[in-house]
Task: inverse folding
């Protein structure tokens, strides 16, 4: 009995050490690229790459936007109503993003329903004018898998000029560039609402 208890304690200690080592080695850009879409927590360390896409910084996004041909896709979730807000108080948050962006809150998870996936694809293709060579820039927040997933989806749909901006809205703001209030894409909002699921905006 004593031997079994000692073995269990040793195993538990080894697990703690291994977990601590994993956390110590982790950090922004430290995750490995999954083969498919990421279905774990959206806010966690992401890879530093997206195979088939180009990773860009704020300067790169600004250069693409200046050419006037890029489609900027923001998949940041909508702000949640603060629990401390008095009952009956007006809740009308504004979503600030890169000017000219199309906002798709809730489009980042890797486990969208087939109907949501189809609606998202159709809408993005419409925004791109049906051109698979159109520059497509996807972003969210730092350490957000949603924008990584969106880039992965774009590649899977056949887009050939996909750019991932992992620093997201915060990275854009920290570069001292202007933001603008954007509304969520109305077509996507209607589809997400009709298909109540993991991607329905909050």
Result:
């Amino acid at each position: 009995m004593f031997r079994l208890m000692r073995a269990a304690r040793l195993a538990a200690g080894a697990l703690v050490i291994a977990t601590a080592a994993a956390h110590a080695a982790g950090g922004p850009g430290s995750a490995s690229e999954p083969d498919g879409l990421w279905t774990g927590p959206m806010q966690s360390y992401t890879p530093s790459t997206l195979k088939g896409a180009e990773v860009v910084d704020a300067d790169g996004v600004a250069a693409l936007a200046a050419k006037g041909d890029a489609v900027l896709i923001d998949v940041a979730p909508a702000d949640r109503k603060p629990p401390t807000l008095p009952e009956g108080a007006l809740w009308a948050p504004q979503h600030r993003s890169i000017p000219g962006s199309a906002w798709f809150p809730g489009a980042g998870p890797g486990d969208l329903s087939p109907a949501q996936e189809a609606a998202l694809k159709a809408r993005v293709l419409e925004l791109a004018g049906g051109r698979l060579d159109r520059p497509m820039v996807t972003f969210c927040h730092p350490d957000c898998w949603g924008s990584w997933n969106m880039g992965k989806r774009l590649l899977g749909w056949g887009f050939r000029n996909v750019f991932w901006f992992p620093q997201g809205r915060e990275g854009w703001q920290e570069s001292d560039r202007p933001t603008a209030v954007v509304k969520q894409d109305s077509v996507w909002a209607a589809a997400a609402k009709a298909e109540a699921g993991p991607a329905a905006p909050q």
